[in-house]
Amino acid sequence: MSRIGDIAEGQWGLVTLQQARAAGVTWPSLARQVEGGLLERVAHGVYRLRGAPEPDHLALRAAWLQLDPGHPAWQRLDDPDVAVVSHASAAAMYGVGDLRADVHEFTVPRRRQTRRPDVRIHRGRVLADRRLILGGLPVTRAGWVVGELLEDRVDPDAVAQIASEVLDRVLDYPRVVAESLAPYAARYGLALGDGLGLLDDFLVRAGNRDRDRLLAEASSL
Description:
about 220 residues; alpha+beta; Arc Repressor Mutant, subunit A; elongated
């Protein structure tokens, strides 16, 4: 248990079967800990140390660990190919919007497969300046989540509400949100690349009372 505890301490109280094996813990020993109530299975090959505080977004964290179960979380955060929490899952991490969060979404630069029906993998690379570490997980920056959702053709009114909440809670800069929206402006009848115009439209949709101030900040250098 001490070896499992050392791993779990840096992973929100979680450990994978592969990590436990690499630390010299055999499957029969691990199974005994589960039967004895010291560990609980939270996903296939992922266990939580009982007595440790239950982390927020437990299912999402377990799904992220499953994508690279042999490496501890702290070794993965600096990897340019790390799976990044994105789209609706990122919105849930920030606590904005009201999108369904029962499907765990990640963006990865290389092809990766999963058998889980509740995990969705997006192919792409989230640039270093468009992601951050939130709650110990690599997550798309709030301003860029808005663009991810539009790319995924999420309902524009729902995205507008998310954009408004991101700005109201100062989770990102107005200019970043406008830049994130720019590639989709023509879809809404605006000039190609007019992210500021689309931001204006979305703030109107969301009924944001600080619209003028936010637009002024978005247009300033």
